[in-house]
Design goal:
Elements lengths: L10 H4 L2 E4 L15 H6 L1 H4 L11 E4 L27 H13 L3 E6 L9 H8 L11 E2 L20 E4 L4 E4 L14 H16 L4 E4 L39 H14 L6 E4 L5 H5 L12 E2 L6 E2 L2 E2 L4 H14 L18 H4 L6 H14 L5 E3 L60 H5 L5 H13 L2 H5 L1 E8 L2 E8 L2 E8 L5 E3 L3 E6 L5 E3 L2 E3 L4 E6 L1
Parallel strand pairs: 1-2, 1-12, 2-3, 3-7, 7-8, 8-9
Antiparallel strand pairs: 4-6, 5-6, 10-11, 13-14, 14-15, 15-20, 16-19, 17-18, 17-20
The chain binds 1-deoxynojirimycin.
1-deoxynojirimycin (NOJ) binds next to loops.
């Protein structure tokens, strides 16, 4: 569908969205780091309007802004610019125009919880206790006995406070020391951040993925967090305390409603929040009928919670999906993802018995079959796995404190040449195994890429799949199934999570399946760890 923000404001309900980690998608200038021109050169792969392309509807770009790159762009030093590694503003304008030409929407990554310590706002804030921007960040004295101002932990580990010699006070950083937290209780901060949204929407950007949205509003007195009764020695340091006073506070939902009003100043724009918590906590990000919140809020429960990864299990799938549907208000659309730049890739998470590749095929049909706006992480469609990155090539500073995220951020594998079609230079992270690439799978009807293409295009032309209701959940003998329905058309999505065949006594037409058998059937044969979409008769 051609781009028209005015005529199709709810495009995001039917969209399949693709996450690009810009450093790793395609390098056009040979410096080993992906860039915006590189993305432009591969847009036809994502959607050229034909079923030979993947068929995605929108791209979320991980941060593209100027940044010292301590956290690879999640430390922003200018919210309204483009990092020279990726190109310049002209390249960004071209990228937006080239995406829109193909009907692809553009989402940027907005990082409101913290800036870089090199952002002019923080430089001014730290310069003196009386600086006009002092209160844009959190500055506190040590406690009486020299203790930190409170017991909060950085998500990456260690105390969330850093002493700054210049003014002999501590500042709050919920992530790296180089990522000071902005004070969202200061109206000037709110206004300045809202303006950064307007800046990009005026340039044609269609929306935003919002980084750690749930943490932007803290308890007004920065009260200690309660200790986590389940924390044991060896668990992640950040989880020593619960995040009761710094995450999902009631006031954060008011801040979200104000953000929504800014988005509503421009037609057809949307935001998806990176939020964490129980189903009821996620559901609140959608706001209420009288006070709308986000268009979409991520639910990462298929990936896992509190640092634990989720198993591939039918009972758990039922619990996640049915539980979330029950928690959401009627107008809210779920939003699931099975991977992103922070977590071990899908196959690597589910490969303990060597059968992660089979599960990846079923995962495609589950993710695209759910009532949801699905997000794919680049390379998921060709089955990219975590890559063993040798110690001396590791880049992610969080590896010292949390978990190294380099293995899931390696360059996209376009072909089988030395530079994998990613670069003519030396890649910033090593490539994965040879033989796994877009070129190797493109002409192969049995490939994972072919399955993704078939599923995405089938979903696009099938109202039951892109906008239908969802119900009839079951988890029986290791098979999770549900039915999508619209205007009398009923499509069953069935996922076999066990390594044995299963037969379902339903008659219908198999539209898409992990195995070769499509067309009319009197009963549905699911191969070990397989999945199918069946139009019921
Ligand atoms: C979540 C982002 O996805 C992650 O990559 C980043 O390190 C933190 N937020 C801090 O911005």
């Amino acid at each position: 569908m051609p781009y028209d923000p005015e005529s199709d404001p709810e495009w995001w309900r039917r969209a399949v969205i693709y996450q690009i980690y810009p450093r790793s998608f395609r390098d056009a200038n040979g410096d080993g780091i992906g860039d915006l021109e590189g993305v432009i050169s591969r847009l036809d792969y994502l959607n050229d309007g034909t079923e030979n392309s993947l068929g995605i509807d929108a791209i979320w770009f991980s941060p593209t802004f100027p940044s010292p790159m301590k956290d690879f762009g999640y430390d922003v030093s200018d919210y309204c610019g483009v990092h020279p590694d990726f190109g310049d503003m002209a390249a960004m304008d071209r990228l937006i125009a080239e995406c829109h030409k193909r009907g692809i929407r553009v989402l940027l990554d907005w990082v409101p919880n913290h800036s870089s310590d090199q952002h002019p706002w923080f430089i001014e804030s730290r310069s003196s206790r009386t600086s006009a921007k002092r209160d844009w960040y959190f500055w506190r004295d040590f406690g009486e006995d020299g203790a930190a101002p409170n017991n909060w932990r950085s998500i990456f580990g260690g105390p969330a406070w850093q002493f700054d010699d210049a003014t002999a006070q501590n500042y709050l950083h919920s992530f790296l020391i180089e990522q000071p937290d902005l004070n969202w209780r200061n109206p000037d901060v709110v206004a300045a951040m809202h303006d950064t949204l307007r800046f990009w929407m005026s340039r044609g950007v269609d929306g935003f993925r919002v980084d750690v949205l749930g943490m932007i509003v803290k308890h007004p007195d920065l009260l200690d967090n309660p200790p986590n009764p389940d924390w044991k020695h060896g668990d992640r340091d950040a989880n020593r305390v619960l995040r009761t006073n710094c995450q999902n506070l009631p006031e954060v939902y008011d801040a979200v409603a104000e953000i929504r009003k800014v988005l509503d100043e421009y037609p057809g724009r949307m935001a998806v929040g990176e939020v964490f918590g129980r189903p009821d906590q996620l559901a609140r990000y959608y706001g209420t009928a009288s006070q709308p919140g986000l268009h979409l809020a991520f639910n990462f429960h298929f990936i896992g919670q509190d640092g634990e990864y989720a198993p591939w299990d039918a009972d758990l799938m039922l619990k996640i999906v049915a539980g979330y549907e029950a928690a959401l208000p009627a107008y809210a659309q779920p939003c699931y993802a099975f991977g992103n730049h922070d977590r071990i890739r899908f196959i690597s998470r589910h490969h303990g018995d060597g059968m992660g590749h089979l599960r990846a095929r079923a995962a495609a049909l589950l993710l695209l079959g759910l009532r949801s706006t699905p997000f794919l992480y680049y390379g998921e469609e060709i089955g990219m796995e975590d890559v063993d990155v040798p110690e001396e090539q590791m880049q992610d500073p969080a590896r010292f404190l949390w978990e190294g995220r380099d293995p899931e951020r390696t360059p996209m594998q376009w072909d089988e040449t030395t530079g994998r079609g990613f670069t003519t230079g030396h890649p910033w992270l090593p490539f994965g195994a040879a033989g796994l690439s877009v070129a190797a799978q493109s002409g192969d009807a049995a490939s994972l890429l072919a399955l993704y293409r078939r599923a995405i295009w089938t979903r696009k032309r099938t109202p039951a799949l892109h906008s239908g209701s969802m119900g009839d959940y079951a988890a029986v003998d290791g098979v999770f199934s549900f039915v999508r329905e619209s205007e009398g058309e009923r499509i069953m999505v069935a996922v076999n999570t066990v390594p044995e065949s299963r037969t379902l006594s339903v008659a219908g037409d198999v539209l898409v399946a992990t195995g070769p058998r499509l067309g009319p059937v009197d009963e549905v044969e699911l191969e070990p760890l397989g999945a199918a979409w069946v139009r019921l008769r």
